[in-house]
Write a structure and sequence with these properties.
30 strands; 6-stranded antiparallel beta sheet; alpha+beta; 580 residues; 23% helix; 7-stranded mixed beta sheet; flat
Length: 580
């Protein structure tokens, strides 16, 4: 029975990892080889290299361990098939490690990955890490000065950690402080730190705001850029207690930095103004050891973050990330700019992602299907922005035609034998009163001005015959409705509080737009949303997300149509129009 259970569990593990192994060109084998894969434990599960070494050392002495980053499996490379087979018999289904409910399961593979993670650890410009800036005695003294049991002095505004403020209170709802309302000043017993900081980073001011964060294992902080206008250039963070990894990101660049206890992190210049920083909520960090990559458990960590409150305008050289400068973009979006913006961040994007789009867009939305089923036999339906044509199949009792601005998506539709043509939604090549019904699903929110969105709806109305109907779907800014999260937020696997970062992009058209973080709440109505392809390469798509009431208000400006129905459907605002 035990052997049967082991084989069944192994099959499940192999199926679960089959897709993960494909991108590494690794194949499993039924016969023994020199290569062994541990199917259910790796860096992402918290397996330490030392743990696997201790297990393997009892069987053989010469081998190599390969632990791919961010994977739930790892590999052992032996120098003979006999050693691999001997270790397999010892490990497979018999060895249980801490933190894992089931024993380790192993299988033979044809090969192993060549190397561990070789990612760059070059620091962003303006970032410095100074280790052992204080002694262990000073660290213990600082930790002893904080009473986390005194609820009156601890802020519970944050779900994932305790925090204390001195000098000025940081307001997390606005990411600002009120310089006119000081609170308890920074304690005198912390003043020795100010003198110590000047030895390594001498500035003309004294830090007057201190935030002390208390992190339990598994807690973190969302990626963010500290508000430009609120604080001066330099931000200093002293780590006490446990070490942890802090993640820095700017556009497609990522750097992970280990912050040891008693180390001082100095953020200034580009690192302070243009790179987001955050701590992923997890119990273990992936770190480099002398033998290679391994995991390091987190303990309780306390950070002292010192800032200087700014008075006056921000003078930074990074307007695309600045909360002051991005409020007043250098250029408003007019029709000429809108044309270029939509070409670069809509049309060109869909040309590049067409194949991936086709692979991931198959299921028809139930309420759209319900609208199609309500049409009369013989009706002519036009799908404006039909994409890969997922609404052009089935419903054989009506005549369906699709159009889209993407040439590559139209080629995909041609291969599926759909009736489609290439067209811009602003200028549809059909005569007036010629279509019985039309749908526009997730299209109009890609238009970057009010007038262009209005024109697209007017085009749909123009084509409809009297009493003809049109269904329009646009993305809703409100992704939480009646205290219920949409699937868009529920599928968030990295940010439990759905808090977005605040990275801004200055486009080549002089317009500054926030770059939305996928699976988080929408903080702006106009933004760039990333599309991540499985084969690599990220693209930014322009979106105007509609606020409640905005879509029917826009439709009410179109003559000859009346609003029959307005509803909310899984993160979309929807309207059914009827031509009078």
């Amino acid at each position: 029975m035990e052997e049967k259970f082991i084989k069944k569990s192994l099959r499940k593990q192999q199926r679960a990892h089959h897709r993960l192994l494909k991108d590494m060109n690794i194949k499993c084998c039924n016969n023994p080889t020199k290569y062994l894969m541990i199917c259910n434990a790796g860096l992402i599960t918290g397996l330490k290299r030392e743990t696997l070494q201790n297990i393997t050392n009892s069987t053989v002495s010469k081998y190599d361990i390969i632990m791919p980053p961010n994977k739930s499996y790892c590999f052992i490379k032996f120098y003979s098939v006999e050693d691999a087979e001997c270790t397999y018999k010892k490990i497979h289904g018999h060895v249980k490690i801490n933190g894992l409910d089931t024993p380790l399961y192993a299988t033979f593979t044809e090969s192993v990955p060549d190397v561990d993670d070789q990612s760059s650890h070059e620091l962003p410009p303006g970032l410095r890490l100074i280790e052992n800036i204080i002694t262990e005695e000073e660290e213990n003294h600082l930790l002893s000065t904080i009473d986390w049991t005194n609820e009156e002095s601890v802020s519970y505004d944050l779900k994932h950690r305790k925090v204390k403020h001195f000098g000025y209170e940081f307001q997390y709802n606005s990411n600002e402080v009120n310089p006119d309302i000081p609170i308890t000043p920074i304690p005198e017993e912390y003043q020795f730190l100010q003198m110590l900081f000047k030895q390594y980073h001498n500035v003309s001011y004294e830090y007057d705001q201190l935030t002390i964060n208390h992190y339990l294992p598994g807690q973190g902080i969302p990626p963010h850029v500290d508000t430009h206008s609120v604080f001066e250039d330099s931000i200093l963070s002293l780590s006490l207690g446990s070490a942890c990894i802090m993640d820095f990101k700017r556009d497609d660049e990522k750097v992970n930095i280990l912050l040891p206890p008693r180390s001082l992190l100095i953020m200034s210049g580009e690192a302070r103004y243009a790179w987001s920083h955050g701590i992923c909520p997890r119990h273990n960090d992936i770190v480099k050891s002398t033998d290679g990559t391994t995991t390091q458990p987190r303990g309780t960590r306390v950070s002292f973050t010192f800032r200087k409150v700014r008075r006056g305008d921000c003078l930074c050289a990074f307007p695309q990330y600045c909360n002051i400068k991005r409020k007043s973009p250098t250029t408003l979006i007019d029709d000429k700019i809108a044309t270029g913006l939509e070409f670069s961040y809509v049309h060109n994007v869909y040309e590049n992602i067409s194949n991936h789009f086709n692979e991931t867009r198959h299921k028809q939305w139930p309420n759209v299907l319900k609208f199609l089923q309500s049409l009369n036999p013989g009706d002519i339906l036009l799908d404006v922005g039909c994409g890969n044509g997922k609404y052009l199949h089935e419903q054989h009792n009506i005549f369906k035609v699709g159009c889209d601005r993407s040439q590559n998506l139209m080629k995909i539709c041609y291969k599926k034998k759909f009736e489609v043509f290439l067209s811009d939604c602003l200028y549809l090549p059909y005569r007036d009163n010629s279509i019985d019904a039309a749908i526009s699903i997730a299209v109009i929110h890609h238009l970057s001005t009010h007038e262009r969105r209005k024109q697209a709806i007017a085009e749909l109305a123009r084509l409809l015959r009297p009493n003809g109907k049109c269904l329009i779907y646009v993305w809703a800014k409100e992704q939480e409705k009646d205290s219920t999260q949409t699937a868009y937020l529920k599928y968030n696997t990295s940010k439990k509080d759905n808090t977005p970062s605040c990275v801004q992009k200055l486009t080549e058209y002089g317009v500054i737009l926030p770059v939305h973080e996928n699976r988080t709440k929408f903080m702006s109505t106009d933004m760039l949303v990333p599309w991540k392809r499985k084969e690599g390469g990220n693209f930014l798509r322009y979106y105007h997300v509609f606020e409640e009431g905005e879509l029917p208000q826009l439709c009410s400006q179109i003559p000859m149509v009346k609003i029959e129905h307005v509803y909310y459907d899984e993160g979309n605002w929807c309207v059914i129009l009827q031509k009078e």
